[in-house]
Write a structure and sequence with these properties.
Number of strands of chain B: 9
Number of domains of chain A: 3
Largest sheet of chain A: 6 strands, mixed
CATH architecture of the largest domain in chain A: 2-Layer Sandwich
CATH class of the largest domain in chain A: Alpha Beta
Structural class of chain B: alpha+beta
Shape of chain B: globular
CATH superfamily of the largest domain in chain A: Probable tRNA modification gtpase trme, domain 1
Strand content of chain A: 25-35%
Oligomer: heterodimer
Strand content of chain B: 25-35%
CATH architecture of chain B: Beta Barrel
CATH topology of the largest domain in chain A: Gyrase A, domain 2
Number of domains of chain B: 1
CATH class of chain B: Mainly Beta
Radius of gyration of chain B: 13 Å
Number of strands of chain A: 19
Order of helices and strands of chain B: EEEHEEEEEHHEHH
Distance between the termini of chain A: 45 Å
Shape of chain A: globular
């Protein structure tokens, strides 16, 4: 198996840093690090320590497995709007937005970031597990004059945490003034990068697209800063869960629509008058009728985590939903979960039971994010 | 300190008289990563060899702990319930899981000793 896994440009660095590599979406990726030397003095490594380091200082993530592509040409925004419910035409140059690719039934094909680079260039970042399908889906919908250019030779690093801005500004002063969800082409210590002030941890931070051949140099420069420690996929998952953010394939997929996924906010105001994206009729109906179930946060009363797939039972003893992501929140020192529950039970504080190892464990519906977002405003 | 014996499910057992103390191996805690939750069997529960009778969870995943032998649970280690990180810090000492009475010495003797367990780990890694 391992010999057919793809590697990111940082593969050698991960191994040198003591990463435990696991297969993820066809790539060998670091799930956590057994750090040594100076880095071990900053962060002892492991999911808990890496998670807490990111919340307290700054964590460096390799997210090069994700798909990066450009959509280029006059009409690029209009072409993408045919496939997503977000307002892309209204996205100003230098701004980025979270949106969804929907199918004809209103189900979610993927979630993605779209940035307007100006001059009819849109930059897309899509999930690793979905990228090939996404590219085919997008390419098939493009009019003459608009092309999809997959950026195979770019790595993607994320620097996340309350000290990320101070760290990156040392190497690229202009990033200090970037607003949340803005994007700019800027050099970092002389390396040309495309930087957005965004991320998927709930913390302030940046995602940095860098030419693959310079990715390790950039990563080493960032790791040389005393606030930074490498963070693996394990902590990436616990950080995004605490932040209430969806993991494609767990919390959203083609069986969930944007309304029941509590992602109605991603539907642009104008798009709600036009209803002209793939699956718009189904999404419009879901919005009009109200969803039969809704994605909510869930906090078990006890210490036992409830994992994805756990059945949620209502006060009447009936199965009322399923947990789609569940685990332990290191910053809360408590188990947390998200999942879908029947519409009448979505109120914060509603008591439910989680069927863990055959036993009903008491839990309550809880507001998300579990840990407040600290994005730069 | 009396010797440890190991199972293929990565539990260890220490026998003191007719009381067996059970925990998870250093290799198991290392593979699991940071332990955040432990569920232990009730005192007085009769367990069979190979029966899932405790649970250990890291941030990412849950694993069953199997009883290495037949017996009756006489003690459960509340310290690891209160501080699951003890399982990582001292897996074969303060991080023990439960104790069994009424165990069969011959079953203990048939389990892997340190050398055999090390060889087993090497074969699993290969």
């Amino acid at each position: 198996m391992t010999d057919i896994l793809k590697t990111t440009p940082l593969d050698g660095l991960h191994r040198a840093l003591g990463a435990r590599m696991v297969p993820f979406a066809g790539y060998a990726m670091p799930v956590q690090y057994d750090l040594t030397g100076d880095l071990a003095a900053r962060c002892r490594g492991g999911v808990l320590a890496e998670h807490l380091h990111c919340r307290e200082k700054a964590g460096l993530f390799d997210v090069s497995h994700m798909g990066q592509a450009l959509l280029v040409g006059p009409g690029a925004a209009a072409a993408l709007e045919a496939l997503v419910p977000g307002d892309i035409a209204g996205l100003k140059p230098g701004r980025q937005r979270y949106t969804l690719l929907t199918d004809a039934a209103g189900g979610i094909l993927d979630d993605l970031m779209v940035a307007n680079l100006g001059d009819d260039y849109l930059a897309l970042v899509v999930n690793a597990s979905r990228k090939h399908d996404d590219y085919a889906h997008i390419a098939a919908a493009l009019p003459a004059g608009v092309r999809l250019a997959v950026q195979e030779d770019s790595a993607l690093l994320a620097l996340q945490g309350p000290l990320a801005a101070a760290v990156l500004a040392r190497l690229s002063p202009a990033v200090a003034d970037m607003a949340f969800m803005s994007i700019a082409a800027l050099p970092v210590a002389g390396i040309e990068c495309l930087i957005s002030r965004s991320g998927y941890t709930g913390e302030d931070g940046y995602e940095i697209s860098v030419p693959a051949r310079q990715a390790e140099d950039l990563a080493r420069l960032l790791l040389a800063e005393p606030e930074v420690a490498p963070v693996g996929l394990g902590a990436r998952d616990s950080l995004r869960l605490e932040a209430g953010l969806c993991l494609y394939g767990n919390d959203i997929d083609t069986t969930t629509n944007p309304v029941e996924a509590a992602l109605t906010w991603t539907i642009g105001k104008r798009r709600k008058t036009e209803w002209n994206f793939v699956g718009a009729a189904a999404v419009r109906a879901a919005l009009h009728d109200g969803p039969t179930r809704l994605r909510v946060g869930i906090r078990p009363d006890g210490r036992a985590p409830a994992r994805a797939g756990t059945e949620i039972v209502g006060p009447d003893g009936a199965v009322v939903g399923t947990i789609t992501s569940g685990g332990f929140g290191p910053s809360l020192n408590a188990p947390i979960a998200m999942g879908y529950v029947r519409r009448d039970l979505v109120g914060d504080g509603t008591a439910v039971s989680l069927m863990v190892r055959g036993k009903p464990l008491p839990a309550r519906i809880a507001p998300m994010p579990f840990v407040p977002h600290r994005y730069a405003r | 300190m009396s010797e440890l014996r190991y199972t293929k499910d990565h539990e260890w057992v220490r026998l003191d008289g007719d009381i067996a103390t059970v925990g998870i191996s250093d290799h198991a805690q290392e593979a699991l990563g940071d332990v955040v939750f432990v569920e232990l069997p009730d005192i007085g529960r009769a367990v069979e060899e190979g029966e899932a009778c405790a649970v250990v969870e890291s941030v990412k995943a849950a694993s069953d702990v199997y009883s290495p032998m037949d017996g009756t649970v006489t003690e459960a280690n509340q310290a690891i319930v209160d501080d699951p990180a003890l399982v990582n810090a001292a897996p074969t000492e303060a991080g023990w899981f439960f104790k069994l009475s009424g165990v069969d010495r011959a079953v203990f003797d048939a389990l892997m000793d340190e050398t055999a367990y090390a060889a087993f780990l090497a074969s699993e890694a290969a």
